[in-house]
Amino acid sequence: MQTLRPYQRAALDGLRASIARGRRRVLLVLPTGAGKTTVAAAMIHGAVARGKRVLFLAHRKELIDQCSQRLDQFSIPHGVIMAGHRRWHPLMPVQVASVQTLVRRAMPPADLVIVDEAHHARARTYQRILDHYPHAPVIGLTATPWRTDGRGLGELFEDIVAPVSIKELTEQGYLVPVTGFAYDSPDLRAVRTRGGDYERRGLELAMGGQVIAGHIVERYLEHGRGKRAILFATSVRHSLDLVSRFQAAGVRAEHLDGETDRDTRERILARLASGATQVVSNVGVLTEGWDCPSVEICILARPTQSVALYLQMVGRVLRPAPGKTVARIHDHAGCILMHGLPSAERDYSLTSDTASAQGESEAMRALRQCQQCYAIYEPRGPACPMCGWERPAPQPR
Question: pTM here?
Fold first, then answer.
């Protein structure tokens, strides 16, 4: 079995202690890049050793494949329940299942159920499956313990285990430091809110202006030219326009969205990983189940009221890679000033909502923005740590 990091062992210990106290549904919170799937595989390894049957649930192919690959690394035989998947082995004691497929099929026996990206588990499909296992412990995995409507997950889980924060992972070297630059603050006053976040059509209009679109390319050329970047756009039209602008500026850029077929998507992401492509712009696709540690810049062109979505987007660039010493956020959507830096202390509890998770601490309220390079930073001296700019002293009256 693979050697676990100290906080991963602490996560397993915390889960075991909670179940020993009689909790049947426990939520494990680990930031993006902390290895939730590795912890799940270690948990499954221990359960199988005790003769237990395990069901792992996920809602996207990428998450299914990620878990299957990790189980292979732990030498755990398993089957996959997903339409057309080559690893259909229904008699295996461990099953990795697509929620969309399993809800239409006979449920396999399970003594332990693990739910990946558990912030989605309020959906009816998940509930129909979980209702089939009233006596099995249910372990939820997430980096962002809030529902899509912004509420906490106390209706779904009885206990929460949160062994480590983004700040601690960065200090321990498991994630790279991140620097945020807030370049634009779009006018969102006319954009309606629907389902707890901005309405997409209004966002497209607010973000589609020439000024912000031009700044997105200019700032990349100025501060990130040649570095690999992932861009989050508001709509397909918005994404395609930005890709066209990057290409016109000589940057190798590509677009993908939910309608991009699987083979094309994999080729695009392979080109990004190799460096053949420098910028990939996407719409609602690369927030979960995708890892590319060599990507150094996250370009935010999609405003959001959701701290969960914000952390999912910026989490894509926090993983370390050879030669990578820092990650950059190019924020053209007002996200950092709304939600704080990724490392901000947040309320990870079953009763917290996204409003209480905004990083509303003394540290966030004290954040400063450099008027020269636009960096967002915690003041530790008179000068901007990125460019040395100093705020002018107030003039005597």
Answer: 0.92
